[in-house]
Design a protein that fits this description.
32% strand, 216 residues, rod-shaped, 5 helices, five-stranded antiparallel beta sheet, 42% helix, four-stranded mixed beta sheet, alpha+beta, single chain
């Protein structure tokens, strides 16, 4: 009778040891919650107040010329010529959506930003304008010709703005990246306090930039 109790106690002890050992092995192989959260490709939504985000400026001195030749009965009455030179600041912005989706490719966070647009009218300081105008030998319209040129400055500058956008793209990308990174550090801080890698794509360029990013 005493021997049977000893056997039963040994069996129970053996079963307990197996259970404890199995639980330890299972817990050792189970991924931690932090690892799962860090590696999961879960889309984030960045909430903003809308409005505009100025992302780049390009400063350049622009010069314009307006020539007005005139003839009467085949006689050349001369050419009135007016010139204007002025420092100009082209400002570029993107319109902020109320919600920006941010996805992950496993290595970095991907943001598809809005289109880069030009702030109109283009800014310039009228106090810095340099002017020159002269009438043809038989003309008396140099003031009117200069006035016409000055009134035409805004549409002329607007027409030139797209040509400078290429110079502004990388600066704009940096501005948006800084904006998103600041938001992420505030609302989704990393355990180690480091900033995540952020890639910014503008409309029509994501595929080409993704290839370039992979090559780097």
């Amino acid at each position: 009778m005493h021997e049977n109790k000893i056997k039963q106690a040994a069996a129970v002890a053996f079963i307990l040891v197996v259970i404890i050992l199995s639980a330890w092995l299972w817990s050792r192989d189970k991924p931690s919650e932090n690892y799962t959260a860090a590696s999961a490709s879960v889309p984030l939504v960045m909430h903003t107040s809308g409005g505009r985000l100025e992302v780049a400026t390009v400063t350049v001195t622009e010069a314009f010329k307006l020539a007005d030749p005139k003839e009467l009965l085949g006689i050349n009455l001369g050419t009135t010529v007016s010139q204007v030179q002025v420092p100009v600041i082209y400002r570029y912005f993107i319109e902020m959506a109320k919600e920006w989706p941010i996805t992950s490719d496993g290595q970095s966070l991907i943001v598809q930003a809005g289109e880069i647009k030009t702030q109109l009218p283009v800014a310039f300081d009228t106090r810095t304008i340099e002017k020159y105008t002269t009438s043809g030998w038989a003309r008396f319209n140099k003031a009117a010709n200069l006035d016409k040129l000055e009134k035409d400055l805004s549409p002329r500058l607007e027409a030139r703005a797209p040509g400078y956008k290429k110079l502004a793209i990388e600066s704009a990308r940096k501005s948006v990246s800084d904006f998103v990174t600041t938001w992420l550090l505030k609302h989704h801080p990393q355990p180690d306090g480091t900033a995540p890698r952020v890639q910014i794509f503008f409309p029509g360029e994501s595929a080409a930039l993704q290839i370039k990013s992979n090559l780097n």
